[in-house]
Write a structure and sequence with these properties.
1111 residues, alpha+beta, Beta-Lactamase, Rossmann fold, 48 strands, elongated
Amino acid sequence: MEEKKKKRSGLSWIEEILSEEAAPLEDIIKEEQREEKPNAKEELSPTVPEIKTPSRSLSAESRGGSSLEEILKSTRGSPRVPIPTYYGEEVKVLDVYGNVRILRVKGEPIPIYEIRLPKLSEEEEKLVKIVRDRAIAEIQIDPESIPDPEERRRIFGRVVKNIMRELAPAISEARMEILVNMVVQNMIGYGKLDPLVRDDNLEEVMVIGTRRPVYVWHRKFYMCKTNIVFDDEREILNIIERIARQVGRRIDQQTPLLDARLPDGSRVNATIRPVSLDGPTLTIRKFKKDPLTIIDLLKYGTFNLEIASLLWVFVDGLGVKPANVLVAGGTGSGKTTTLNALAMFIPPSERVISIEDTAELQLPIEHWVRLETRPPNIEGKGEITMDDLVKNTLRMRPDRIIVGEVRGPEARTMFTAMNTGHNGALYDFSVIQLSNGKFVLIGDLVEELFKKYSDRIETYKDLEYIVLDEKDRFEVVSVGPDLKAGKHIVSRVWRRKVREGERLMRIKTRTGNEVILTKTHPFFVFSKGDVVRKEAEKLKVGDRVAVMMNPPKPPQRRAIVDPSIYVKISDYYLVPNGKGMVKIPNEGLPPEKVQYLSSVNSHHVKLVREVNEKLSYIAGVILGDGYISSGGYYISATFDDEDYMEAFVTAVSKFVPNYVPRMKNDGKSTVVTVGSKIFAEMLSRIFGIPKGKKSGIWDVPDVVLSNDELMRYFIAGLFDADGYVDKNGPSIILATKSENAARKIWYALQRLGIISTVSRVKNRGFKEGEIFRVIISGVEDLTKFAKFIPLCHSRKRAKLMEILNTKKAYRGRKTYRVPISSEMITPIRRRLGLTIAELSKLASYYAGEKVSEGLIRHIEKGRVREIRRSALKGIALALQQVAKDIGDKEAWVMGKRLQLLAEGDVYWDEVVSVEEVDPRELGIEYLYDLTVEDDHNYVANGILVSNCMGTIHSNSARETIVRLESPPMNVPRIMIPALDVIIMQVRFNNRKKGTIRRITEIAEVSGIEGESVQLNTIYKYNPAKDELYHTGVPSRVLNQLAEHTGLTMDELLEERIKREVVLQWMVEKGIRSIEEVGHYIREFYIDHEELLRRIERDASIELTEKVRTVI
């Protein structure tokens, strides 16, 4: 029973074919016996009866006792010759291949594509019908179970041939092949269109209705008219319905449109009545198995070498700033071809994700994820839109996103990705690390800017944002794809109110970093040797998130004091006049030669024009364990060490000369008081030290972050005053009630290369409240602390040195180690044919230290989860060298990735707590975010928190901007400047060259001026000369690359010429296939010097000279 059921279900496709095209064989035979003389015209276009297919093979009895010979004799006649087409007297043959002739006919506006169709006699036509019907009934194979169309044809052709040989053994082999092909193309092909679909010289096949010629787009002769005509509308409908079933779609009067991709990649569009007034239409855009590459586009004149090599530099970004590129143009202008060619320039080390309505891109990239939209099913459910895929892609840690065609809401999502990276936000007490070495609360920073720009606040839904003027833009610390720290500009700031019922996520790490943010805000997470983005709500305990370890060194600025702070700080300014000091009333800014500040009954205080190390040390002591009296009359600090007290008093004497502080000793400690209102006020104003009680509100002064020297002495003052050394840790610890200060000290230590942790603990001295401990632990970081922080406290310094003299570093802290798994080492080692012993020996050599066989074995067996950075680097370099020696480029890239992990400027902190919090209970009203150009990430509370290519239909760069801003895309104007380059492409008819595709404009988005987006057109098309010319406008993208790479414009020109040489060489050598072109582009990224030397040996004389200018 089950077997019969299965057999019936397997015949469902047969029933569909029979019901749409032919009656059962019994009916055909009976009809033949009844007919005295068949009508030739009707046989050419048979009416299709809706009759169910028999679910069994046809026996001789079912044929009514008639033999095949009798049936054929009844219709025997002369061969049926199609009516010839007369083109007139003047016909020129343009090309001939296979069964095809391309003709130029006088009076016809376009060439004629003439295909020689087989001429069948009436006997042969009848044989074809009988064989087809029997094959349908007997073949028990679902065509869809054989995905390869050529294999499908071979299998069906073999069965059909056997049936035909049985029924008509006298037919010649050559004639039988023709008849078998006709049967097969009617069963599983495209009927009359089958030869056109199989012609690789055609790009598109276009059916425009009945009794009208089918048109094709020829790769060489462009639009052509064929000699194929459909007389019966049903023939076209049958092909359309078969395609619809093949892709699991429906087309009928309720849904009269079909847009789909066939299994071979071809793109199909079909329309039927009532939307198609003249009957069904069908357009098949064929999938080119050998797509055009940049070399083809150079030969066709779409690009020239200068522009192609410049775009290569733009797409590459030289490892620091790849451009966001959009290709725009009309239908058929070649946008996708250009996009495919440019995407081949993406470095092979990057993760690429493409999103398309219909998959057309073909890239020689290994790490490539292809996504395709899905239409709704028959019930109208299950649709996956472009916008859905763009949003999902942002969670897949892409280095590059390629959006095949932008038409609707996905444009806004794509631009949001370009601008902010992700839809996330931070609460207002998150500390942001600026590139100038300062640290600010994101809430304070953004609110201050919103006040300044109160008349220019723009909104989008519940978001408020402002575009910063050039002078107000600032840089933050971020991390690039190579895990190296960098600086990037913030061009916009955002805020929104906490939504009703919204919950936030609090993430804590082992080293004490803590951040509160929205559930969708992404982190960078280490996962099996790769770095992926993961939203806050999806984090779990044990995940390893990226935390900044080596921020870029900020500029070392002089800490110049603003003269306005001295206004009214004293009664007089003292100015030397050669004989002494002249008193000048303090009624404004100090004169240029002022040396001291003075008041009645007070000691002179030196006027400070630039903060030095001693004043910075004093500020550290006061903020650590001292205070400024609430009235501002004096400063006071407590000392428990003579050396430490002497350092403080000596420092004070430099600013308050000839003054002896008051000292009071209680046997355990000494209180030192400096009774100078002027000095106290000066410290308060320069360093922002609060008067009176300060324990929970003090902050690290911005001025001490001006340069590393001031910072070192400030930290020394803090730890001398309030730090303590724990020999059991071993560690040195500073405790404070100010969370803001604790996190900024963490940053300051990090700037000096000292890794610390911040922990939140209950304050045991009070019923309520918390304190924050900044902890430096581990011999490596304690050694750095002793080297860089000039402690004056003798006992603390002695304890620290005792630790360093008696303790040894053991394997290093987690921050100096990288997570490791067997998947990172084992596959590449085996691929290179290395034994563990060989790898150990090589890795030890490159690491400069022992990388034992035992360590490698433990890694490969999953027993070791972390490895020293130095050891991983040694392994990575060893693997790269072996890969290079044997020419395995992919293995070299895998080894390079390990090296980047070992040398990265982040460490992988372990998540120890993930919890939802109620923002209202924490007093959080607003959430904030930044638009960070380029890498689209920044450091918040120590944790790293979180580009694109696409095509669009348009006719100019300006129109492209209008389309982006208009429905249905609705991209806010504020987001447009995230786009770097717009490439305009058109297809038009040239009188001399025929139909051609050309780049007509290359423009860069330079920003927003007033109410409009500013465009700089750097290349423009000259139709008279058929060439692109440089407009003389300097490239903004090149200027940005110069800024981020440190290269001069001449050096950037050299980078472009290197790429031009590679492209020119491939043109010379006829290298054009996607595999070959992709191979040499990959070779360039792996070792461009070696490739250029090879080109020098192998190129023409002219090109050789060009190579020598860049080697």
